[in-house]
Amino acid sequence: MHTFTKLLATEAKLFLRTPMWAIFGILLPTAVLVGVGSIPGMSKPSEVTGGYRFIDLWVPSLVVVGLAMLGLQSIPSAVASYREQGVLRRLATTPVPPAFLLLAQLVLHAAVALAGVALMLVTAHVGFDVPLPRHPLTYVVTLLLGLVSVFALGLVAASIARTAKAAAALAMIAFFPIMFLGGVYLPRPLLPEVIQRIGAYVPPGTQPLQDAWVGAGVQPLQFVALAAFALGGTALAVRLFRWE
Q: Which domain does 176 fall in, by range?
């Protein structure tokens, strides 16, 4: 544990030397929220959304923005850059196991992502009168599972790509579908029903996040799907990890 703590502290210092990802991760979801909330009609109830306001149902989709950006762009680029620059080759001569390095990246980016989500939720509640999640515990569990499941996909790309550009390109295979299925490009109520059903079971779990938000029951199978992505993806990343 002492080795991991030192590694985490070192990674945190390196991460903050170029704070672009931290700034984007914390501020971007809120910035998008303010922009969307300023569009006329987004704050009015609609029959299309079952009487809810578009912004009420779109806030869970904004969670996807921060998670996808950090998990599928920042993490793959960071780890692959270490490989490209020979940092991982030098780490391979130390007792540091691959799992520690990947876990450190996950913890750092998770802290930034959760800070961004918290700021966005507070802004939505205070600025746009969006109610807080009615099932907060279910929401938090779903958020954590969704976070790890998205980050796990990024860790897989980071574990095998030789260069930062290759890692970013590989992660894009998951980035665009997750953004689309999560309702970022188009609000989920406007998506075809079959697309909505598929999106309910893929990371980061926008549908269960929304259900926990409005007070509807979350289907157990959705939790199982997110847990499978989270555990399976992380295990696969550790299994495929290459120092060079």
A: 2-240
Distances (CA, A) of 69 to 43, 58, 224: 26, 17, 24
- Nearest CA to 69 out of 117, 101, 10 is that of 117
What tokens were used for 206? 């926008």
User: CB neighbours of 165 closer than 8 A, spacing ≥ 6?
Assistant: none
The DSSP result for 100-141, as a single string, is: HHHHHHHHHHHHHHHHHHHHHHHHHHHHH-PPPPSSHHHHHH
Number of domains in the chain: 1
pLDDT in tens, 209-236: 888 887 777 788 888 999 999 999 989 9
- Distance separating alpha carbons of residues 236 and 234, to the nearest angstrom: 5
Contact (CB, 8 A) for 219 and 233: no
Residue whose token pair is 């931290």: 22
